[in-house]
Description:
By secondary structure, the protein is of the alpha+beta class. It contains 15 helices and eleven strands.
Amino acid sequence: MQKFPIASAQLDNGLQVMVAEAPSPGVAVNLWVEVGSSDEELDRTGFAHLFEHLMFQGSANVEPGEHMALIEAAGGTVNATTSSDRTNYFETVPRGALDLALWLEADRLESLTITEENFEAQRQVVKEEKRERYDNQPYGDLLELLVGQHFPDTHPYGHLTIGSMEHLDAAELPDVADFWRAWYRPSNAHLVLAGPISPDEGFTLAERHFGRLPKREPLSPRAASTIPLHEPSVQSVTRDVPYSVTYLSWAASPASADDQPALDLLLSILADGHASRLHRNLVKDTRRAQEVHGSMLPNHRAPSLATLMARPADGVDPRDVGSAILDELARFTDKGPSEQEFARAVAQYERAWLWQLATAEERADLINEAYLLWRDPDRINTELDEVLRLTPADVRAAAARWLDPERAHILHYLKDDH
């Protein structure tokens, strides 16, 4: 596997800068601010996501909307995302537009314009996003129900990144400004530059644009919550949706845990593709399901959620499908995967991992993720080796530890036939 050299430096104001030099059509600029929905006050949810929008609404030297327009005019792409643990601002630009991209990022990190006008405009944008993606979308409340089965409302991870519209309606401009001052400081951010740029040049450009930002005390490390999670439950809801689905979910290890790769292989063996165990059993052989899938919802400072989903075949009781998954899981825990199943999952993991590393954009994101989780950007060069050292026994142990059939949360999301 190709190794990507990563050089790291910290500016005097606390900004962590990482440069990964490699051939690429453009340079990826990837800035992570370590604030997500899990950092919000419980009566002020949605602020982290709100800033994903507000950060494009102008700064001292940039008019509202001009950041995106300038990057696109230079032939680049730009966007942002929010999770429970970070907010990510990223662009990929031609080599000649790198200076512009860094100037734009530094200007808004230093001097974001927060006015009543742009706050109200973006508040309405977020509310419309909530209506489109959650309120008026089939299965729009499914993720909220899954999260709610595990985390109480008082838990930092007990709400979605979109937040509460009631909280946003109640928010006033000083609340929003205080959130920005609290979290958007150089010492709470890390910048990755990936592409045809040397470390010396990357550090020089970072110092030129970000070095002038004032130094502020770094935030205290946030500890994992001690609030207990909910006990396993069975829940059924009926909605106007095209078809019923059944979700089984478990509280698993945090995203930085050593056994996360084994859990990824486990979910792949069980439910990734037509050769997976649950597809062969439920879809192909017994025809009890139309499809099956597995996924991991990763959390940094709380248990991640491992999920298995099945869409029952016509006329099949969703409870029967859920029971069949648990039976298969019990057999898996008893004997573990076959050598063939294990080899297939490892090959799929390797292909997906190398595919992500192939582009500067994805590589920059993985470097920032590695810094967030382990404070070690070089993990992108060792993670695959760790996976290749795993054995079928490691995957079986992960199943026994985390996917105990007796500890499954079950959600039957049923189609309304009336």
